[in-house]
Amino acid sequence: MIKVEGLSAKYGELVAVNDVSFDIASNEVVGLLGHNGAGKTTIMKILTGYLEPSEGKASISGLDVTNNRTETQKLIGYLPENCPLYPEMRVIEYLEHIANLRGVSELSMDSAIKEAIDRTWLNEKALKPIHTLSRGYKQRVGVAQAILHSPSILILDEPTNGLDPSQIEEMRQLILNLSKTATVILSTHILQEVSAVCSRVLIMNRGKLALDSAITELGGDNEIIVVANCTLDQLNEILAQEPNIDEITVLSSKDGQSEFRIKVAADIQRTSANLSKLIIDKGLNLFSLYQRQRSLESVFHEVSIGS
């Protein structure tokens, strides 16, 4: 559906995006993350045809975005971070205007507008002037205009910005529903949003793609945390009997109790069971042993400082 190959973008001497490549399949929900200035907004602008890349290319459904801008834009619904609205218009007037710009036929315009209003919970505000709406409702109008023409790709920049907790939950459900018929790229600073709705994450750092991973692959790192009353030498002696150990690191040591991080090469469940038995059989006190879990927040932090 979306293919990015060797993409680079420069603003004068500033390299905003540096040799980025990735593929996104149909109906994937992908989180695009990164600190301000990491390059994610530039990538979204290139995908939507707003900017041309300095090098490389982006294609949508096999069409090069630069050479087929009009055709690819018809496939995309885009919610920018600050969606341009006409405050003097009523909501339904604005959506009619967008539908006309999008080439929605008169025959299907009423049903398209009604569906967009229903899906974004705007029914009670449909006849209100946009300038009277709260920030949250204005955000809903922005999403409504993005889905009016039933796009096969949705690019959403901070879609929950300004929403209260219940509205955020509704927006999450909307994004999941939209992913049944569209590929979704979600850019947000709220990492919980990505964990809740995305199947995959792309993390940008200083213009480069620092991580491309399925969300399910972020949870464990094949590492065991062990807390026991032993020294590193004693633990090394014990682990000599276990072939799947790659590396041991001392995390802390105080009052005869030490915490170790052990990297495991394979079969972490069996290795954990063997390791606990070996420590206990040695007559040592094993206070805890568990597989290290990594949240998206910790992965984001590691990638951001490590690249």
Folded structure, characterized:
The two termini are 28 Å apart. The model has no long low-confidence stretch (mean pLDDT 90). With 307 residues, the chain is an alpha/beta fold. The strands form three sheets. A six-stranded mixed sheet has the order 6-7-8-3-9-10, sandwiched between helices. 34% of the residues lie in helices and 31% in strands. The longest helix is centred in the middle third of the chain and has 14 residues. It has two domains: 216 residues, Rossmann fold; 74 residues, ACT domain (Alpha-Beta Plaits). α3 packs across α4 and α4 packs across α5. β1 and β2 form a beta hairpin. It is built from ten helices and 14 strands.
Secondary-structure element order, as H and E? EEEHEEHEHHHEHEHEEEHEEHEH
The side-by-side strand order for the widest beta sheet comes to: 6-7-8-3-9-10
Q: In angstroms, what separates the terminal alpha carbons?
A: 28 Å
CATH topology of the largest domain: Rossmann fold
Q: Class by helix and strand content?
A: alpha/beta
Kindly report the name of the CATH homologous superfamily of the largest domain: P-loop containing nucleotide triphosphate hydrolases
Helix content: 25-40%
What is the approximate shape?
elongated
Low-pLDDT runs: none
Mean pLDDT: 90
Number of strands: 14
Query: Major beta sheet, specifics?
Result: 6 strands, mixed
Provide the CATH top-level class of the largest domain: Alpha Beta
> How much strand content do the residues show?
25-35%
- What is Rg? 25 Å
Q: Count up the domains.
A: 2
Query: Under the CATH scheme, which architecture of the largest domain would be assigned?
Result: 3-Layer(aba) Sandwich
